[in-house]
Amino acid sequence: MLEANKKEEFKLENKVNSSDPLMKIKSIKNFQGNIVPFNPTMVREMLLNAVDGLENVSMSLLENETAKSLYEGINEHEIIQALIMAARPFTELDPNYTFVTSRLLLSHLFSEAAGEYIAPANRADFYQTYFKNYLKKGIEAKRLNESLLTDYDLEKIIAAIKPERDEKFTFLGLQTLYDRYFIHIDQQRIELPQIFWMRVAMGLASVEKNTQEKTDWAIKFYDILSSFDYCSSTPTLFNSGTPYSQLSSCYLTTVPDDLGDIFKCLRDNALLSKFSGGLGNDWTPVRGMGALIKGTNGASQGVIPFLKVVNDTAIAVNQGGKRKGAVCSYLESWHIDVEEYLELRKNTGDDRRRCHDMNTANWIPDLFMQRVEENGQWTLFSPDNVPELHDLYGKEFEEKYVEYERQFDTGELKVGKRIQAVALWRKMLSMLFETGHPWITFKDPSNLRSPQRHQGVVHSSNLCTEILLNTSKDETAVCNLGSVNLSRHVIEGEGMDKEKLNKTISTAMRMLDNVIDQNFYPTPESKASNSKHRPVGLGIMGFQDALYKMGFAYDTDEAMKFADESMEAISYYAILSSSKLAEERGSYESFSGSLWDQGMLPVDTIKFVDEARGEKIDLNRDCSFDWKPVRESIAKHGMRNSNTMAIAPTATISNIVGVSQSIEPTYKNLYVKSNMSGEFTIMNQYLVEMLKDRELWDEDIRKQLKVNDGEIDNITRIPPPIKNLFKTSFDIEPKWLIEAAARRQKWIDMGQSLNLYIRDPNGKKLDEMYRLAWKKGLKTTYYLRALGASNIEKSTVTTDERKNVASSISPATDMSGKNACSILEPDCEACQ
Question: Is 739 a catalytic residue?
Answer without folding.
Answer: no
